[in-house]
Amino acid sequence: MQSFPGFELVALKGGGRSIRSLVHGETMHIGTDPRTEALELHVRQQFLAERVLAWKDWRPFVIWDIGLGPAGNAITAIEELRGTTALVEIHSFEISTTVLEYALQHAVELEYLMGWEAVITQLLTVGSAQPLPNIRWILHRGDFTRGTHHVPAPSAIFFDPYSPARNIEMWNLETFRSIWEVVSAPESPACMMTNYTRSTAVRVTMALAGWFVGKGVPTGDKTETTIAANRPELLDKLLGEDWISRVRSSTNAAPIRGRNDEKGPIAAEDFAALMNRLQFRNIKYISGLPRLS
Ligand SMILES: C[S@@+](CC[C@H](N)C(=O)[O-])C[C@H]1O[C@@H](n2cnc3c(N)ncnc32)[C@H](O)[C@@H]1O
What we know:
Layout: E1 7-11, E2 17-21, E3 26-27, H1 34-43, H2 48-53, E4 61-66, H3 72-80, E5 88-94, H4 98-105, H5 107-110, H6 117-126, E6 128-132, E7 135-141, E8 156-159, H7 173-183, E9 192-195, H8 200-209, E10 212-216, E11 225-229, H9 241-249, H10 268-275, E12 285-286, E13 289-290
Parallel strand pairs: 4-5, 4-8, 5-7, 8-9
Antiparallel strand pairs: 1-2, 2-3, 6-7, 9-11, 10-11, 12-13
Helix pairs in contact: 1-3, 7-8
The protein binds S-adenosylmethionine.
């Protein structure tokens, strides 16, 4: 049996198991368990099954699974889409599939992978698989932050790298802009992107990259997460006046650029650019005071 010194299985509070990356010092899906987090945060929050059932476009319904890891989000989505008939393409992006190989070796302990071992093996060896008759699953190996994405525009994005403290390049302006360029193209479908963070700096970065940004559902021990979209009407809880006041006073609201993870308050020109975004243009008060410009 191959050994994977970079990972270990950990028991979660709720009784399930998940994987800890020893290199990144992070446990995946720590709040609940892989299946519950994937359902609450990504699959159900994005009304995935309902949207696929209603999908009438001639193109497949496309999901981008950014940070495939041990495939908790992808497998949960596939299971939730059982019974749908529209064509679906899942494009998973991953810099190193070692964690998925490790997960495959521990499919019984992890539970959510049980029954999908042959599909995962094919994805790893061939680069694509057919988990259900209407679903094609494609693996894109390599660094997601390098270059442009020549992949069909998504309707749903599961954005799930390690945290900004360990994986800064995935959270910077350049990366969010590179995705925004795809979802904001004229022919692109309505698209949502879900993620576990509620960091002010990350939300500022997403908004400056072009995204509409809203409050996401709670999951596990997180009282709030983040959901972004290419159209404001897709978001129930768009960030507004209260959040802008917080940005103004926060000591960690500067957008993330390059690999610079220096925390700090937002610079005047970044704040002006943020206020100029369509989402915030009509805000009249900041911290209770009338907006001056
Ligand atoms: C938290 S894990 C993903 C968990 C997974 N989505 C799941 O549901 O089980 C983060 C993953 O993002 C991958 N990743 C980090 N940086 C990346 C990059 N620049 N390009 C592609 N994948 C990256 C890591 O290798 C890791 O497998």
